[in-house]
Amino acid sequence: MTERQMASTERSLRIQADDDLKSMFVGTVMRKIKSRTWKKQRYFRLQEDCMTIWYKSKKAGNTHSTFSVGDVEAVREGHQSEVLLSIADEFPPDRCFTLVFRGRRGNLDLVAESAGEAQSWIKGMRKLIDNLENMGQREKLDQWICDWFKKADKNRDGQMNFKEVQDLLKMMNVDMNEHHALRLFTTADKSQSGTLEDDEFVLFYKMLTQREDVLRVFQEYSGDGQKLTLQDLKDFLREEQLREDGVQQYALKLIERYEPSDTARMLQVMTFDGFLMYLTSPEGSIFNPTMVELYQDMTQPLCHYFISSSHNTYLLEDQIRGHSSVEGYIRALKRGCRCVEVDCWDGPNEEPIVYHGHTFTSKIFFKDVVTVLGNYAFKDLKGKILLKGKKIGGLEDSMNGVVDDSLMGEVSDEEETAEFNDDHHRNDSIRHRVKKSKQSLSKELSDCVVYCKSVHFSSFKHSQIHSKFYEISSFTESKARKHIREAGAEFVLHNARQLSRVYPSGLRTDSSNFNPQDMWNAGCQIVALNFQTAGVEMDLNDGLFSQNGHCGYVLKPAFMRNIDERFDPENPQNGGYKPLSLSIQVISGQQLPKVNIKEGSIIDPLVRVEIHGVPLDQAKQETRYIDNNGFNPVWYDTLQFTIHVPELALVRFVVEDYDKTSKNDFVGQFTLPFTCIQPGYRHIHLLSKDGTSIPPSSLFVHVRITKLT
């Protein structure tokens, strides 16, 4: 048994000996809560694999449900969901907890019979999640194989017959003829029992997933085709991965970290298994791991950073009749958002409420929003919150305590006026009515606004002369685009000194999003998106802010911070920037997810690479599609791009299921900043439409970036 296998076994035994998990193995009756009136008892139990939660109704006969621990993102203790807040008067917080699932799956709100039982499940689930996150690559792969075995073993006898294997291949997106499938099955069936058991299925899976594409690279650098010597590995790292510094130490580190054979590690060589483990690890990813961490200067003025920002954060659906919820704030903050919107209005009994004013959206209490912000807003911030809003007088007046009572009272709603003027510019009656709209402003709220006073934007010239550092202007998307078209360089200079916020048009009642890249090209810091709406716009937002420790702040390029430079996003070539050539060879795909649940349906995948940046850099190219193979499609197609402003470019990889009669179906995507790309042979670990990981789905590519002379 290898050290890694021993470590895995020790971890498994440690888990099973844990008191909290022992309690979960036995099982617990808890109330599943959906609303104040829907509270039903369910029996919950942890399965022996320590990976699956099984539960059923006490009355529903044999029917039951399961979910994987890997699907659970977090465990919240107490009344930390909208549903549990609604029944806070009925059940104490020490008996309540919430399981938050990845993606768009709804929360599971539970009430235990006692505080002790609740604690066992809260602590136990957190231990299981930590254990899963700390698994090595090989353990994760073994777990994934085990999950597939369970799905395919329909009669649950711990064995798989050939019919179950054929069904499994279809589930895994593999279109394989019966003769070839039977040959693999027979080879793996060492016991000649006509079925595959644990180790036999692992062997079958490994034959199925042989990586000829990676083997080709391995053998190109291996002297004997069996191993990479330390020198072989160094040659590969220098010539293909373009590693320059500390190559010997890095090669030794890779062998120690990824080589599964004790003998090979002792001889300082790498086998094919170790080479594959390295290429599928974070160090073999297209995303440079040093840029995943916090690596930028975080001491510059706030206007020098792009800031991950949300629009109408409280909404989970559309802008007119949508559901308002504190869940919107929790999801946005956990996704890295650092600027949230709280539309605060007078409510009944002088209790402030939050909702989209003058619409039919539901209402939530302001105090619940503030509680959530206190719980979730300080995962990597400096313990400070800045309020952006209307302010009576200026910062200097507040500091000197000279705010006159005559300044108190009404302020116009600049944003609402601007929005209606832009979107209904042909309708004079609406414009006239909105311009007259006034709102009363609380002095206490005004005093809380310090560094982000909302002011009306007149012109770039006026701003340059009169604006204060603590002032911020908001622009509708259409107004921002107009400024970019007509005075792009002036907008960039304005944003080197001042904060700007851009928000969606009032006509986007379906909560759709505009393209944020256009606004980042002009240096706009606070580009507010509807986080609840999946799509390319949120992919770009997630991609930009996936760097720098996922802290929600990204330092703008130097030429956008320096007021002595003149950068025009519409004409970047005037600044003397030297373009780069980006060459991407799309080699293969691995275990792409099914998009059509129809039985027997196999995808026909193609890969599209999109460049998002200044208008001159916007481009997209596609590979050909591969017939009926979502499991291990091979392309070896090369796509070429020219990048003029790499500091602003994002690269989006999209996999689609080709359809000649209708629109292609989305399969997966991954978006990252151009500056975070690692050259060489790299894996791209795909994400779902919601931005969550879908392991082990990936693409294998070769990347080259060169200067254009």
Automatic annotation (TrEMBL):
EC number from the UniProt entry: 3.1.4.11
Residue span of region Disordered: 414-434
Location of the EF-hand domain: 140-175, 176-211
InterPro entries linked to this entry: C2_dom, C2_domain_sf, EF-hand-dom_pair, EF_Hand_1_Ca_BS, EF_hand_dom, PH-like_dom_sf, PH_domain, PI-PLC_fam
Catalytic activity: a 1,2-diacyl-sn-glycero-3-phospho-(1D-myo-inositol-4,5-bisphosphate) + H2O = 1D-myo-inositol 1,4,5-trisphosphate + a 1,2-diacyl-sn-glycerol + H(+); a 1,2-diacyl-sn-glycero-3-phospho-(1D-myo-inositol) + H2O = 1D-myo-inositol 1-phosphate + a 1,2-diacyl-sn-glycerol + H(+)
Keywords: Calcium, Cytoplasm, Endoplasmic reticulum, Hydrolase, Lipid degradation, Lipid metabolism, Membrane, Metal-binding, Nucleus, Repeat, Transducer
Topological category with respect to the lipid bilayer: Peripheral membrane protein
Keyword flag Nucleus: yes
PH domain: residues covered: 22-130
Locations listed in the record: Cytoplasm; Endoplasmic reticulum; Membrane; Nucleus
GO cellular component: endoplasmic reticulum; nucleus; plasma membrane
Compositionally biased region (Basic and acidic residues): 421-431
Entry cofactors: Ca(2+)
UniProt domain C2: residue ranges: 561-688
Organism domain of life: Eukaryota
Enzyme kind, highest EC tier: hydrolase
Stated name of the protein: Phosphoinositide phospholipase C
